């Protein structure tokens, strides 16, 4: 088990290296010069050159990448071209917002999704099954952008129960969490349902019932536990995805998170910022997946002893 | 099944309620910020203004975007500033004279002015401020705006003399530009790059704090030499998403917003608690040409394209509430504007001109546009449809801002891939010189960092240079009229479509918001009438 753990952790390094190379290469292949964007619309060649030099953008690409790697190993992610602040600082200021939303949304989505999926599976082909799966489908197919704006329209503008934008009080997190959670909840519900259906048909469930155990114990203790592997996988994937993909919700609710920072950085060709944010997001994703892998070992003893 | 149902529902409810409890007790990340009041319910006595992007820098000598300029305007004074009609009037300079050779300007500096840190302002402080922006080592973005300055001399504590290399008629307007703000150079030298987030000036408001992408707070400077700000505090809050920004105004969380989508404007205009302020700005939307590519090198072709466009239809259908058809190569609010009239929609004339130019059956063209300009895609589509009627078959290229921007960043004519391309322009000095010269003067380097379309007209160059070098404002106006005739009618440098309104919507209770034609909204006189 320890060897498994160590192996998985070591695998993180080449993945991250690969990610940085790909991001760096792609950024420099697309048209658009950050110095030109920063200089504004009535700028002269001289202004642009000044800005370029002060950012170190006039050095050859290989030099820029080597500098980047060197700094990275020392924990220095460089300075944002736009704000001139250290990228590491920008990221540490923004990451908690995204992480909080991602965690809250995943917890909400898992609770609602798993329960809905289990109920649907247990009451298969009944009204409750159909209704919950339709709602799940709606959740999956509704664009988060639209849902966010609709929630804002109803709860903030019409009812005045909640604030519109920002992230300064716990109340501000309610609508973004609901918006982000909706899609995840839908997916988790559907996955839970199919996983449960698989498991309920198994012989050991019939045996458990035959033993005289209460239905609740059969479903939640025996069946659900065995269905957990695919469910945990999807929860992990969704969580990882949320860490990166919150940009739409962050834009609608004006939350200064990392998703928006990443997209803005691409639009302004803020190379250090793009590299920094993508790296952090990739690292988070890899970490979450590693944790999920480790959880498999925890849930299913058979994996532990492989 | 029926016996388990209530149990399942109880579980669901418990799960949901525990989660709402979770959401309410979840600690948001601890970040230092000044207390912001809860929305709507608490009576706030200072205005919050919201626009679409955050301030980039608070260093006036390094800023190139409108949002930064709006905020910094309230913290700094210039030697000369613009009044409501964009006429240069005294600010820190009580008066000024220009020598007979029109190259030396002498300014009388106002007494009793203090910087935000208490240091008194004098002529040598003003000199130090200009020295900072002119010093190439500082690599400030706005250095080039002042490169007509040859020498600055301090004659005495309150007299400053600036000599330019050549006579420059637009000098007062240049000094009134946001980048001409007089900064506390000693503080700037001490703080280095941090000055951009910790500025120090002489204006009615001083900097308090800035949480990037969240809020920027200014407090009233009680030792201000002029009329003190009415509100104790002004807060700027960027809200990126337009729909959210509009809703934040409607719920009362912010007091004023700009960059309002057309679809929401009508609703806001009908709202009895809100006021929608419109002012014609200096910003014009146009489509320019790559002058060195056939067939755009032929003025008749460009004139034909101009006649083929029904500008009123574009405004009526796309920008009914937000723009007005252009009547010249500059907007009326820009100093030096000449009313040359709307170019009539005349497809028959267009076809005739095309035939004369040798294209009786039209030709194929590419229109490049970007959605960074409001409805940039839709405008291009209308253009294509209208040009088709005179035989010009257009392909539309919708490009991302950074991509299209790259096409006019100092390229040689053969490297620039654009043919007809969208552009929005408005001189930030409010003066015809800046609105015409960098854009249409033949570039000495042959590359297009300012003259995106490689426009070149000998008479235009001559006229523009003359106008720049005379300080006789009446004579300048005549010369600029001639220049506009050339570039608007005779040898079109672009097809001008419409002049944008600058629109700000705010609560009725927010009074005395200042709006200038340069697209600046400032709040140094504004206050919330909480009665």
Keywords:
heterodimer; A: 306 residues; mainly alpha; 15 helices; flat; B: 531 residues; alpha+beta; D-Maltodextrin-Binding Protein, domain 2; Dipeptide-binding Protein, domain 3; eleven-stranded mixed sheet; four-stranded antiparallel sheet; 30% helix
Biggest beta sheet summary of chain A: none
Quickly give the structural class of chain A: mainly alpha
For the record, the CATH class of the largest domain in chain B is: Alpha Beta
Number of helices of chain A: 15
Q: Write down the overall mean pLDDT of chain A.
A: 85
Structural class of chain B: alpha+beta
Main beta-sheet strand count, sense and barrel state of chain B: 11 strands, mixed
The CATH superfamily title of the largest domain in chain B: Periplasmic binding protein-like II
The global form of chain B is: globular
Per DSSP E runs of 2 or more residues, the count of β-strands of chain B stands at: 21
Order of helices and strands of chain A: HHHHHHHHHHHHHHH
Q: Give the end-to-end Cα distance of chain B, rounded to a whole number of Å.
A: 62 Å
- As residue ranges, the low-confidence spans of chain A are none
Mean pLDDT of chain B: 86
* Quaternary: heterodimer
Radius of gyration of chain A: 24 Å
**N- to C-terminal separation of chain A?**
9 Å
């Amino acid at each position: 088990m320890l060897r498994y753990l160590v192996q998985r952790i070591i695998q993180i390094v080449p993945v991250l290296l690969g990610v940085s190379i790909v991001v760096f290469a792609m950024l420099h292949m697309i048209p658009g010069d950050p110095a030109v964007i920063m200089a504004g619309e009535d700028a002269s060649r001289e202004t642009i050159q000044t800005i370029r030099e002060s950012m170190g953008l006039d050095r050859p690409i290989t030099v820029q990448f080597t500098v980047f790697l060197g700094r990275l190993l020392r924990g220095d992610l460089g300075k944002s071209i736009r704000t001139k602040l250290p990228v590491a600082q920008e990221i540490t200021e923004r990451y908690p917002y995204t992480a909080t939303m991602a965690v809250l949304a995943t917890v909400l989505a898992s609770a609602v999704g798993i329960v809905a999926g289990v109920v649907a599976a247990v009451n298969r082909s009944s009204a409750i099954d159909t209704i919950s799966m339709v709602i799940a489908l709606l959740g999956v197919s509704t664009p988060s952008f639209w849902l966010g704006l609709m929630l804002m329209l109803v709860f903030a503008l019409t009812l005045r129960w909640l604030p519109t934008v920002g992230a300064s009080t716990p109340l501000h997190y309610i609508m973004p969490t609901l918006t982000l959670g909706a899609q995840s909840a839908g997916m988790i519900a559907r996955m839970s349902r199919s996983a449960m259906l698989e498991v309920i048909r198994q012989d050991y469930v019939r045996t458990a019932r035959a033993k005289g155990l209460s239905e609740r114990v059969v479903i939640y203790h025996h069946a659900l536990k065995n269905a957990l592997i695919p469910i945990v996988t999807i929860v992990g994937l969704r969580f990882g995805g949320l860490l990166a993909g919150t940009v739409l919700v962050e834009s609608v609710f004006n939350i200064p998170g990392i998703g928006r920072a990443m997209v803005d950085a691409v639009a302004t060709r803020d190379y250090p910022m793009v590299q920094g944010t993508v790296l952090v997001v990739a690292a988070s994703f890899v970490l979450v997946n590693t944790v999920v892998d480790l959880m498999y070992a925890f849930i299913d003893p058979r994996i532990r002893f492989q | 099944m029926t016996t388990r149902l209530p149990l399942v529902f109880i579980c669901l409810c418990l799960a949901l309620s525990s989660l709402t409890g979770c959401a309410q007790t979840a600690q948001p990340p601890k970040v230092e910020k000044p207390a912001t009041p809860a929305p709507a319910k608490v009576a706030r006595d200072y205005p919050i203004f919201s626009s679409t992007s955050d301030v980039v820098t608070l260093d006036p000598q390094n800023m190139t975007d409108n949002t930064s300029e709006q905020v910094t305007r309230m913290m700094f004074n210039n030697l000369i500033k613009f009044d409501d009609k964009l006429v240069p009037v005294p600010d820190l300079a009580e008066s000024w004279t220009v020598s007979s050779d029109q190259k030396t300007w002498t300014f009388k500096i106002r007494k009793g002015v203090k910087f935000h840190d208490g240091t008194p302002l004098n002529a040598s402080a003003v000199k130090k401020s200009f020295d900072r922006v002119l010093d190439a080592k500082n690599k400030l973005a706005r250095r080039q705006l002042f490169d007509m300055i040859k020498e600055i001399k301090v004659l005495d504590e309150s007299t400053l003399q600036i000599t330019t290399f050549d006579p420059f008629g637009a000098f007062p307007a240049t000094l009134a530009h946001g980048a001409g703000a007089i900064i506390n150079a000693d503080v700037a030298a001490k703080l280095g790059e941090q000055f951009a987030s910790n500025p120090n000036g002489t204006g009615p408001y001083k900097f308090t704090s800035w949480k990037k992408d969240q809020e920027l707070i200014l407090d009233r400077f009680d030792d201000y030499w002029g009329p003190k700000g009415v509100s104790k505090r002004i807060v700027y809050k960027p809200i990126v998403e337009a729909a959210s920004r509009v809703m934040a105004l409607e719920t009362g969380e912010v007091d004023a917003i700009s960059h309002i989508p057309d679809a929401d404007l009508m609703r806001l205009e009908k709202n009895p608690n809100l006021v929608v302020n419109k002012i014609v700005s200096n910003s014009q939307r146009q489509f320019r040409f790559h002058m060195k590519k056939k067939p755009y090198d032929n003025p008749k072709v460009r004139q034909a394209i101009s006649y083929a466009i029904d500008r009123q239809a574009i405004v009526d259908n796309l920008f009914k509430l937000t723009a007005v058809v252009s009547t010249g190569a500059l907007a009326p609010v820009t100093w030096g504007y000449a009313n040359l009239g709307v170019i009539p929609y005349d497809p028959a004339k267009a076809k005739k001109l095309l035939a004369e130019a040798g294209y009786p059956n039209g030709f194929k063209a590419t229109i490049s546009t970007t959605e960074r300009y409001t409805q940039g895609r839709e405008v291009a589509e209308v253009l294509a449809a209208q040009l088709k009627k005179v035989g010009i078959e257009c392909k539309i290229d919708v490009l991302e801002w950074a991509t299209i921007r790259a096409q006019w960043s100092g390229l040689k004519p053969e490297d620039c891939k654009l043919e007809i391309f969208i552009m929005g322009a408005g001189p930030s000095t409010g003066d015809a010189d800046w609105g015409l010269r960098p854009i249409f003067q033949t570039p000495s380097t042959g590359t297009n960092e300012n003259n995106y379309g490689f426009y070149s007209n000998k008479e235009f160059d001559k006229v523009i240079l003359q106008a720049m070098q005379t300080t006789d404002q009446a004579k300048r106006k005549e010369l600029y009229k001639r220049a506009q005739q050339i570039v608007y009618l005779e040898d079109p440098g672009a097809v001008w479509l419409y002049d944008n309104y600058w629109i700000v919507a705010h609560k009725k209770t927010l009074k005395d918001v200042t709006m200038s034609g340069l697209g600046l909204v400032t709040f140094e006189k504004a206050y919330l009438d909480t009665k």
